[in-house]
Specification:
83 residues, alpha+beta, two-stranded parallel ribbon, 2 helices, 2 strands, 36% helix
Length: 83
């Protein structure tokens, strides 16, 4: 505990970007939750834009809106690859 799960459109991350994201999230989570860095886990999962509505938007943003602390600032339909 705690676990952070990030879903995003596919892209390549540099080693420095990965390290920066992990360090930044870990620092914030340990400060807010008053826990040790070793108790934090972070998952990063790419989701194709064409599957975003089915795999992320509907099940996690619409169906579980009561859990969101920050709402996204986009509306459906979402852009797809190449747009």
């Amino acid at each position: 505990m705690p676990h952070v799960s990030i879903k995003h459109w596919p892209r390549t991350f540099t080693s420095a970007e990965r390290s920066d994201l992990v360090a930044s999230l870990t620092e914030t989570v340990t400060r807010v939750f008053a826990c040790e860095p070793g108790s934090v886990s972070i998952a990063v999962e790419p989701v194709e834009p064409s599957r975003w509505l089915d795999l992320v938007h509907t099940p996690e943003l619409e169906d579980r809106a009561h859990l969101l602390w920050k709402q996204p600032n986009y509306s459906k339909p979402l852009p797809t690859e190449g747009t």
